[in-house]
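Model it.
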Amino acid sequence: EFELGELPPGRVRITVEHATGSATAELDLAAAERRRWDPVLAAIEMVAGRVVDTELRPVAGIEVLVGGPTMAATAAVERTDADGRFRLAVASAGEAGVDLYLRRAGAPLAVRHGLLPVAGELLIELAEHELPSATIRGRILDRDGRPIAAALSVMNHGFQIAWYAFSDPATGAFRVGPTAPGSYTLIVEASGFGRRPLRVVNLAAGEDRELEDVGLEPAGRVELRLVGDASKQRKVLKFARDDGVVVAHSITEGSAVTVELPPGRYAATVVGGPFSGSTTILDLPAGRTVQRELPCIASARVALQLRAAAGHGIGGRVDVRVRDAAGAFFDAYELFAGNAAELTTTIALPPGSYAVELESTDGLAAATLLTVRSATDHPTLTIELR
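Modeled.
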């Protein structure tokens, strides 16, 4: 018997693991509720396999996990040995098989779905675009050329998850990889400088990309007050740069939020709730404090149905930039599509006329006009990226 106390109300996920099996439950708990759960352990079996390249040569040092990328933070990890071999304990695969996620030093490489255990070894062949053969290098400096100790959040757009690299405090130099080729965003975070996204597009197999020195300016400070909302409910605010890059998110429990950002021009937008899409534009100088109000306006939900031209995937990520009737930057969204040929999502906009511009990391693009007549309007845009 066991008892877990002091659990918060809401949804909790509980996993029991033992050498003979495991069980998981997701429970919705009310405040002060007592709940009984008697887990029945599912059988454990061993999955043995070998990871090779396209010429069937073993690939050592590959991390193998059960499940997809979103499970990577909690799953047990096995690494391939010099012969590319691994053995992994999994709950009974059943008829559906098991999903294996492969990465190197935290960087995602590939996912294999529905693998069924066999009497011998599973053979997992990594294609050229899945092998860790590419690197990104650079230096992070302040405006006087001095090195900065910074963390870099690295995202492969095909997997929608991030891992971290760090610059050398003595030189400011950093190195990402070896990793798989593909399309990447790097976000540089340093104390006193805020978050600065960098974009590296289409890193080729075997490429050693050296970026120009990244010069950081001291962050500014935004003190934002939301007006026109009496609910005082928790809100998430998004800060998007005028080139369409989302730089930061912040949460407020009331009507005010303070955030540090690199200097630049931003759209500050409410995310979620009836005032989602309410936006104000601000210019933030380096090292300065800017105080602004953000009027909360009831907004409409706009459905975007994106399609790629025949024979194409959309491209790992799509940047959406919205301009107002005068052509001025209004808001931006980042959408992740992987290699899908279609993607449906929803954005929020107050009543008005807008131009919507889209560009994928594969170089596909589109633009269209949109009129939102009222907050109860629910227009749908079907857009083909070419």
